[in-house]
Design brief:
Thrombin, subunit H; Pdz3 Domain; 5 helices; mainly beta; 3 domains
C-alpha cells in the first residue's frame, strides 16, 4: 500500500533523493507526486504497510486563542512537539507565497519545522508549518502555517492530475490607496485597480481596460488585489466569469472567459 505525505515545496525543491522517517524510526524512500510553489506545498508518496494517517481538522472553525501544537524536527534534533495558541487568522501580504492565508501561532516553530503538522488539541491537522518571522533565526513566537483547507485543495488536485490548475485573466493590478482613490474619483479604497491588461488575454478580449477598478468577481466582492487574485485563481479555466467594474464613475459589467494561470518561473539559482 502507499500513502501520501504533505510537506513544503521549499523543503524538497532541491532534493535529489527524499527520505521519510516514521515515528518508530523506520525510514522510507519517497517519490515526489507534484508540487505547488505558489502555496509552497509538495505531495510525496511512500510505499509501506500500515502507515499511520492524520485526520483533517477544519481551519474554518479555528478561532484566535485556540490551543494548537506544532510537530517537526527543529534543527534536526529529532521529532519535537511544541504548544501555543492561534495568534491570528487570515494573515496575508507577508511576501512569502503568491497565495497567502496564514494561521499565525506562537507555538515555537524553528528551522526544521517546515512542512510539519500544526494540529488542534484533538490531534486533527489544521495547518502546515511553513515560515517564521525572526531576528535571531530561531523562534520568536511568530510562526505561520498554511491552513488545512488550502493544503487539502492542493493535495486533491495533485493526486488527481499531478499539478494545480488555477484561473487567470491576464491583468496587472495595484492597490487602491487613498491618493489613488482620490485621483480616480473613487468613493472607497475597496477593489483592485487594473494597471495593465495583457494584449489578447482573457480580460482584454472581454473589454477590460487599464484604469478600470475591479469590484466583483462572480458576485463576490473584491476587497483588494490579494482578494482578487484568490477569487480569480479559484475559477476553472474555460468557464465564463461575470465581473463588475467601475469605469469613470460608471458601473460596467463584463464576462471574461477564464484562462489558465501560467506556471511561476523557476527561481534562478
Amino acid at each position: 500500500t502507499s500513502g501520501y505525505v504533505l510537506t513544503n515545496h521549499h523543503v524538497v525543491e532541491a532534493a535529489d533523493e527524499i527520505e521519510v522517517a516514521l515515528a518508530d524510526g523506520k525510514k522510507l524512500l519517497a517519490k515526489l507526486v507534484g508540487n505547488d510553489p505558489e502555496t509552497d506545498i509538495a505531495v510525496l508518496r511512500v510505499n509501506s504497510e500500515n502507515l499511520p494517517a492524520i485526520s483533517f481538522g477544519s481551519s474554518e472553525t479555528l478561532r484566535v486563542g485556540d490551543v494548537v501544537l506544532a510537530i517537526g524536527n527543529p534543527f534536526g534534533v529529532g521529532q519535537t512537539v511544541t504548544s501555543g495558541i492561534v495568534s491570528a487568522l487570515g494573515r496575508t501580504g507577508l511576501g512569502i507565497n503568491t497565495f497567502e492565508n496564514f494561521i499565525q501561532t506562537d507555538a515555537a516553530i524553528n528551522p526544521g519545522n517546515s512542512g510539519g503538522a500544526l494540529i488542534d488539541a484533538a490531534g486533527n491537522l489544521v495547518g502546515i508549518n511553513t515560515a517564521i518571522f525572526s531576528r535571531s533565526g530561531g523562534s520568536m513566537g511568530i510562526g505561520f502555517a498554511i491552513p488545512v483547507s488550502t493544503a487539502k485543495m492542493v493535495l486533491e488536485q495533485i493526486v488527481k492530475s499531478g499539478s494545480v490548475t488555477r484561473g487567470w485573466i491576464g491583468v496587472e493590478v495595484q492597490e487602491i490607496t487613498p491618493p489613488v482613490a482620490e485621483s480616480f474619483k473613487l468613493a472607497s479604497t475597496r477593489g483592485a485597480l487594473i494597471a495593465g491588461v495583457l494584449r489578447g488575454g482573457p480580460a482584454d478580449k472581454a473589454g477590460v481596460k487599464p484604469g478600470d477598478v475591479l469590484v466583483e468577481v462572480q458576485g463576490k466582492p473584491v476587497a483588494d488585489p490579494a482578494g482578487m487574485l484568490n477569487l480569480i485563481a479559484a475559477l476553472a479555466p474555460g468557464q465564463s466569469a461575470k465581473v463588475k467594474l467601475k469605469r469613470q464613475g460608471q458601473d460596467v459589467d463584463a464576462t471574461v472567459t477564464v484562462g489558465r494561470r501560467p506556471k511561476p518561473q523557476a527561481r534562478a539559482e
